[in-house]
Sequence to fold (331 residues):
Amino acid sequence: MSLKKIQIGKHNLQNNAFLAPMAGITDASFRKLATRFGAGMVVSEMIASASLAAGQPEMLRRIRASSDDPHIVQLSGNQARWLELGAKMAADAGADIIDINMGCPSKKVTNGLAGAGLMREPEKALRLIETIVSSTDLPVTLKMRLGWDENSINAAQIATSAVNAGVKMITVHGRTRQQFYRGKANWRLVRPVVEAIEVPVVVNGDIVDATSAKEALAQSCASAVMIGRAIYGQPWLIGQIGNALAGKKPINAPTGDDLLELIKTHYEMMLSEYGEHLGVLGARKHLVWYFDAANIKIDKQQSRSLLTNTNPKQVIIMIEQIFSKQKAKAA
Ligand SMILES: Cc1cc2nc3c(=O)[nH]c(=O)nc-3n(C[C@H](O)[C@H](O)[C@H](O)COP(=O)(O)O)c2cc1C
Fold:
């Protein structure tokens, strides 16, 4: 399979495997690690433009660049003035590309006709897209689903008008909004989007390794893949898939002391991104995922301490103890 490298504006993407934006997970710390391991592109967590305009600290954290190159800021919203302001604030925060969220299925978001709710209102969606494109010099991309439900699959129509309005790349999660995360992503239904437009299309949904990435590309004829949930506990996965798609030598997953160092580094990065209190809380899910992905079994007592202790130094000591026990068992 030979894939062309993608260029958006003046930005040449490293390879054709991208990290999906995931609110609460793909923060600056995680994106930095994914980039270090060779992800072709990373995107910020979704930033609600109205909350950003109101100066909500969580949104101000999300908009900050890490070492992402390019720094892609994903905005959601349903009002032109907040999206316009959001695009300006993103540019001030060093964004290189603005991504529009038209895929979020959450009721809170779609009830306000933002996220995937916009797929039910293609005219309104188009007006918002035009507003953003005309309010910024930055390239604009779009992430969406197949449609609102199985009776209204309209990704290709929306993609066509979005591209006519100036959108430079489109990612399609192969589910409808009404599916939320149920069932299986339908990569074949992404193909009509590829056939309808001239800009690169990225296929997303249920891609977990190089084999499923190749299958998703074959079924959709897309130019690249985007991977979300499969990265839990394995920030190297996108780089591995990107290398496999480019026919390069695979990156080995870190194990033993290398994995321990990675976990400690990630933990420290989160403490500095969020501050100690929120950093300790936010890092807990990653610790569980790292152990799950590496098949490191921890007993109930260890798990409870790890998930309740609020002292970062003690948490690090616990992680080291888990690894030395694991080493002793393997010896
Ligand atoms: C916890 C979580 C948070 C998410 N947050 C966002 C987001 O902020 N912006 C977005 O466009 N999609 C978001 N998504 C959707 C993912 O980007 C992706 O489209 C979806 O998970 C399907 O891909 P996957 O099967 O590889 O996980 C989120 C998904 C999850 C599970």
